[in-house]
Amino acid sequence: MEKPLPEPAPSAAAEEVAERFRSLVDPDDVASIRQTQHLILGRLQDSNAVLTHFNEYSEQCFAEVSSDFASKTRLLKSMKADLDHIFTKLRGMKTRLAATYPDAFPDGVMSKTMDQRPDLESPLD
């Protein structure tokens, strides 16, 4: 049977390679990089704290006004429905007037004045 070879101790060549790698970088440069990274870390932590505070404040403000927005939205939708109903009634009245008194409306005027409201559903250009 073969005897297992003992693991060699770190050789002088390995130590030489490690020393050469360490000598590639100036220790002052490494210290400067670490200091800069520490400074950046501090600034990022401060920014994170400020953003967290701002998010909490924004959430609180939104909670305060969201019920107002919801009620105002319901009111506007109700007003729009009421106005649509009113304009529908007015169009019907104009049509009946034009049928009852055809002399009162010259040709082509009725189609122009039928509904001059802007379309509130379409986006503005």
TrEMBL record:
Transmembrane segments: none annotated. It holds the Pfam family KxDL. One of its GO terms (biological process) is lysosome localization. It comes from the Eukaryota. InterPro entries: KXD1-like (IPR039843), KxDL_dom (IPR019371). One of its GO terms (cellular component) is BORC complex. Residues 20-105 form the KxDL domain. PANTHER family: KXDL MOTIF-CONTAINING PROTEIN 1. Belongs to the KXD1 family. This is KxDL domain-containing protein. It comes from Miscanthus lutarioriparius.
